[in-house]
Description:
Chain A has helices at 11-20, 27-43, 45-48, 79-84; strands spanning 68-69, 89-90, 93-97. Chain A is mainly alpha-helical. Chain A has a two-stranded antiparallel sheet.
Amino acid sequence: MSSGGRPPLSRDEVAHVAVLARLALTDEELDRFTRQLAQVLDHAADVAALDLGGVVPTAHPLPLANVLRPDEPAPCLDRDEVLGAAPVVEDGRFRVPRIVGEAP
Amino acid sequence: MSPGAPAGPASDLVGPAASDWETVVGLEVHCELKTVTKLFCGCPNSFGDEPDTNVCPVCLGLPGSLPVLNEQAVELAMRIGAALQAEVRPSTFHRKNYFYPDMPKDYQISQYDEPINVGGWLDLPDGSRVGIVRAHLEEDTGKTTHQGAGGRIHSADYALVDYNRAGVPLVEIVSEPDIRSAAQARTYAAELRAVLVATGASDGRMEEGSLRVDANVSVRRVGEQRFGTRCEIKNLNSLRSLARAVEHEAARQVAVLEAGGAVVQETRHWDEEAGRTIAMRSKEEAFDYRYFQEPDLVPLAPDAAWQERAAASIGLLPAARRHRLLALLGQDRTGAQEDQVQSVVDQGLDDFVVAAVSAGSPAPLALVRASNELAADVGAAQRLEPSSFAALCKLEASGELTATQAKAVLAELVEAGGGDPAAVARSKGFEAMSADSLAGVVAQVVEANPDEWRRYAAGDDKLAGFFTGQVMKVTGGKADGKAVAAELRGRREQQA
Amino acid sequence: MTSGRSAAALAAAVRAQERRAADVVEEALAAITAGDGELGAFLHVAAEEARAAAEAVDRAVADGRDPGPLAGVPVALKDNLCTRGMPTTCASRILDGWRPPYDATVVTRLRAAGAVIVGKTNMDEFAMGSSTENSAIRPTRNPRDSSRVPGGSSGGSAAAVAAGFVPVALGSDTGGSIRQPAAFCGTVGLKPTYGAVSRYGLVAFASSLDQIGPLTATVADAATMLEVIGGHDPADSTSIDRPAPRPALDAGADGLRVGLCRELVDGVAADVARQVRAAADALAAAGARVEEVSIPELGWCLSAYYLLAPAEASSNLARYDGVRYGLRKDGDDVAAMNVATRTAGFGPEVKRRIMLGTYALSAGYYDAYYAQGQKVRTRVIEAFDRAYRGVDLLLGATTPSTAFRLGERVDDPLAMYLSDVCTVPSNLAGHPAISVPFGTGDDGLPVGAQLLAPALEEPRLLAAAAVLEAAAR
């Protein structure tokens, strides 16, 4: 197991990740996901353990830079169409339940 | 603060044993860039439109949409960098992942470990220098309105979201914790605002949210080298709020520490009405932004030529603008005039003064008209042609319009967004009184008030004001105050 | 599949006024109506829009205008391609009922070329899967054997072409989602160079790996489709600023240096390996110099892929929060509403990958997983570059086996992930690759031979693919 030297994935970690991802998991799902994610991470352990110090990470397969757009206006969407797709609207805006806590 | 960093003005005195404590402040200023379109799409970057009208698949984060970077936003970011003596570097964009309903993609595209501008500083009018950590590009969020329970965030029933602002380009300017008082924090923010306006990057309108300030505040014992635990104060919508919030937060922290407690690192909300900061309730989840490089954008590396063009296109910065007006006033200027210079430059109205003086008006007169009449509605005033203002000042300086008339004409010019001052004056029936008719009016007033005249003739100069007032009354304000005074003096000398 | 049913032949007939586009589309619609009940290739059939589009093509021809190279050709689109006013659900409950207010760039280009969009095809939810069993609506069955999966995630598009409903379809390929179902169903499947086809309007799975490409009955049609949908798009910052490559299909394989890649042959089922070696022989017979090559770094790709792709996906799928479109399930506050919506709206595989990706990006694990995956990516690209100094193309299997049975792997995510082992390297490198049907396995099911080429070498790739196609007949 885990030749990368990391401890196996814990159930608590999986529960924390679910909170970050805004997903609710049942106890059964939590057990199953813990097992399945551990399996995938274990399969990746050999790669995680590779010594790749000094290798530059590739974020992107293309060597592109400076892709820019002129500061010129383009048409916007029709407001009725935009709001028509929303689950709940009020007063020309998107309505959501109360917000607890401010944006970070 | 780095050793050798220039000292600011004396620390504020806060708390019970205030002189033992030093306030330490670093500011994060979010500046909305004055582009035509948003950062990653062609929707208008405009304030005050009907909700959810300036939106498209990109800024609404619709599935399948992709961002493309606005060239002008990069240009303005580089101008800001140049004005702050920062170094422009090759940069990348990252995703900052967190859920919030005003963020259409539930991540914000922002520059993270490779920002466009690194380092720099801002010199303040009080002689202090505040270091700049970075000034990076990012996208703004939409606007949330809390509904019910008086719109207060914690007790609201629900919220409405308008995405017109989502994707508006921002530059976030992060200062070093070099600021040592609430007053200096205010001075820094005011000077930075003036710099941002001068570069053409910002309209500087804090009341519209185009400049927003967060303050990181901590306190420490005088002489202590390490920083205290800091709190981040949000919702600072004016310079006044900033100064008050820093002052109160520092006092709060001192009180906590003096009582043997410890400051908890947290984000606090400034409640303008209550005049205090409040800890923000947050979900139990710790924020873990899971930054990673935005795969839908490619790296940004402006070449030297573009960087030079951006730096060269900056107008005069506020320090130079202040210097220019002070030079026009000359050595025997008053403290009040220096304050007027500061405010006129802060408000971006100094070009009007320069235009008026170049056209032959005295600097003090132009300065007064700019700092009073133009400043009354800066937004409207900025639509005015400087030449129009200069012509108005000239009419007043030559005595063709009285001060009262000049103010009335100027108000109309500002409201109309321009025009010919002489024509406006004529349309209002303002014309300078001839010397003969003025003399007649003065004679009439003197005759009607013999007692007052006797006292004035005997040397009681205070009564000059009384007679001027009477003359104005008779002429309906058309008389020139200076001409009246001259006529009164002439009459008295004749009598003597 | 006969060339008479190819897109090229249909378009030629419509342009020459030998056939009416309206008749062509009626035939396609009739075939779908008759056969798709069992197959489940389509999630949405846009009959009325298709008829209107076909009539417009016929009018253009009658007026002496050229409707374009795909005049009257019925096309099926994977349901993760945005189509204005037409449902686009990614086979997910969370996008139930969503009709995009805009067309993907590829859709705009297809319409401009005279193509007639007949509907949206089934897929694994958000393109996460290799069997189309992860569709929240229903699974798709393999037209060659209905007890087998069609592969995935573009299983609906592959099945629609293999069943003869349409001559061409579009899919998307993040880790093999075009090539693997093409191999399972016996069609041609091309994943172009990353950046050769605009992603604007493709609902993102893993942005740095996703590419749109064609699934077709013939190699020539794949080439035509690439010409139509490829080329620079200013709406996609990662779009390569040059015109779509113009393939020369008759270039043949004479003098071509082909590397038979050990890592893409040795681990696969014996019957699949046998066909791949036969494909190598066919290329040699056409004048290619075939040699065996080894690229050990390819062995790292699957692990790297299953760290990188879910990480990007976890961020790309955050926007399904119940606020602006799609499903909403109520909650006491906005966070509870987000949780309720996402929990109800996403299927188990999507949740699994969001969890995996969130974990790989989270504090404390980023360097070990995400950054490490990106470094592997660098090494894989370098390894390919070295290999391509000696050879012009690489040859291997598309899949480790022929199509497996429905239900066989749904409960074993890792086994399912392993079916991508031969296809993910091209995605990590951003290189083009194509799967061409080449014989059958012991079970009589199609085998796909995979050709790989360096970035932007689609012409070379397609020319060699045409040689294999001819040899397989």
